[in-house]
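Inverse folding, one chain.
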């Protein structure tokens, strides 16, 4: 199918992009287009205006800041995945990104776009949530920071305003001696996961975040839980959803299996880091 007609603008500055969005309530930002363009083509989205941010300079940066990683709105998944700095400072980011789609999509799709898109089956929202990261956005009222815990509000729904441009995402770095791991089950590598899990082990603290289990990323605290009980303890804090891709019972079984596996891997990582 062809998209419904829309107006297209390609501003050269962030201020012009914000102004364009403010003038049309039914406008959408276009970043990598890897989620938005299919939605337009299927007419699941029909914005009156597309504000293409690809010409705005300075948004494609990947920088180490306060021991974490700041990823600009035009940094492509592939660039973030290939960054040695990112791998050193927060290895969970490339661990998860290697499961995002395929190389051609990662060459164009942006990590920040994936966060704004807020797909419950996407890898990066759960990584940002587990790490306690944030998204920086700019709108008519200026710049604000949205903590990950307030960013994902429903299926394909983030708290970024319709008149705001996400400028960057901040992923906190890994503390010395801590461990991380990422596991997912998908029908084929690169497909959206049926269930995925990311673990963060810091001293006694054990936390696991899940994608594709509910409408928004879910993080559970498994500190002090015996290894044999990890899966059931996680399930007690989750309500796996039922959809056309998998039943709730199947997702519950994947949670049982992946939780033990991902926590063990994160502990191994932490042991290796000591
Ligand atoms: P776009 O498609 O340009 O935009 C997506 C949405 O976010 C739009 O609503 C847009 O308005 C908004 N947006 C984007 N950037 C900004 C911004 N800076 N400020 C405000 N709003 C913004 N993703 C996964 O996580 N895991 C997968 O396994 C996976 N598999 C895929 C398989 C296929 C076949 C395809 C086509 C895509 C897949 N994706 C997957 C999606 C991919 O990761 C996208 O790149 C990503 O979801 C969106 O990034 P984008 O830059 O392409 O955003």
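Residues assigned per position:
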């Amino acid at each position: 199918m062809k998209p419904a007609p829309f107006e297209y603008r390609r501003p050269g500055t962030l201020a012009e992009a914000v102004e364009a969005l403010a003038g049309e309530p039914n406008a959408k930002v276009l970043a990598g287009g890897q989620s938005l363009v299919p939605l337009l083509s299927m007419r699941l989205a029909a914005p009156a205006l597309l504000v293409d941010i690809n010409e705005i300079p300075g948004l494609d940066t990947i920088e180490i800041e306060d021991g974490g990683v700041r990823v600009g709105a035009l940094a492509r998944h592939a660039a973030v995945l290939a960054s040695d700095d990112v791998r050193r400072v927060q290895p969970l980011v490339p661990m998860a990104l290697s499961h995002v789609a395929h190389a051609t999509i990662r060459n164009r799709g942006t990590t920040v776009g994936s966060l704004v898109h807020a797909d419950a089956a996407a890898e990066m929202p759960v990584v940002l949530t587990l790490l306690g990261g944030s998204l920086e956005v700019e709108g008519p009222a200026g710049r604000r920071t949205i903590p990950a815990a307030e960013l994902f509000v429903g299926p394909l729904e983030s708290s970024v305003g319709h008149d705001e441009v996400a400028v960057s995402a901040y992923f906190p770095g890994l503390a010395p001696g801590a461990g991380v791991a990422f596991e997912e089950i998908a029908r084929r590598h690169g497909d959206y996961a049926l269930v995925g899990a990311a673990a963060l082990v810091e001293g006694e603290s054990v936390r696991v975040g899940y994608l594709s289990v509910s409408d928004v990323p879910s993080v559970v605290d498994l500190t002090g839980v015996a290894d044999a009980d990890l899966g059931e303890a996680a399930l007690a804090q989750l309500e796996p959803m039922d959809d056309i891709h998998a039943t709730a019972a199947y997702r519950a079984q994947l949670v049982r299996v992946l939780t033990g596996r991902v926590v063990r891997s994160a502990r191994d990582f932490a042991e290796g880091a000591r």
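Residues 28-36, 38, 53, 73, 100-101, 105, 109-110, 112-114, 116-117, 122-124, 160, 165-166, 192 surround flavin-adenine dinucleotide (CB under 6 Å). The chain has ten helices and 14 strands.
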